Amino acid sequence: MIADRRPKVFRGVGMALQPAVTDSGTTSIARVVHAGFSRHMGAGVEYLENVTIDWTVTYDEILFIKEGRLTLRFDDGEHECEAGDIVWLPEGTHLQYVARERAGYFYALYPVDWAARQGTVEP
Asked: pTM to 2 decimals?
C-alpha cells in the first residue's frame, strides 16, 4: 500500500547506501523511490567500485551516469560511459557492469515491483 502520495525531495547527503549483493559482486545502492511511494516507478542511486556485475534486466530501466567511468558490455559490444551519459536498458537486456574505479549512476525503472512479480527479492 502506498503510504504517502505527496511530492518528495530526497537529499543526496541523507541517502543511506546499502549493499546490493549479487552472485557476481556487490555494489552500494540507495533505493529512494520504491513501492512505498509509487505504484509504478522505482528510482535511486547506485555506486560500483572495482567490480564486474553480470545481470539481466527484467524491467525497463534508464541510467544517468553521474560520476566516474562505467563500462557496459552488451551482446553487441562494449560501451564506455562517463558522467552525463544516459543509457536505456529495455526489459530482457543481458549486460555486464564493469567499474575499474568508483562509478555512480542514477536509475529509474518500471515496474517498481519487478522482483515481487517474479517471486524474488531485490539483491
From this structure: 0.92
Q: Which CATH number applies to 19-112?
A: 2.60.120.10
Answer for the pair 115, 104: CB distance below 8 angstroms, yes or no. Answer: no
Answer yes or no: are the C-beta atoms of 101 and 10 closer than 8 Å: no
Segments making up each domain of the chain, as ranges? 19-112
Residue 53: all three cell numbers together: 556485475
Query: pLDDT per residue over 8-26, tens digit each?
Result: 899 999 899 999 999 999 9
Extract the C-alpha cell encoding 94. 543481458
Q: How far, CA to CA in Å, does 53 sit from each of 11, 13, 29, 48, 121?
A: 27, 26, 14, 9, 17
| pLDDT single digits (tens) 49-108 | 999 999 999 999 999 999 999 999 999 999 999 999 999 999 999 999 999 999 999 999
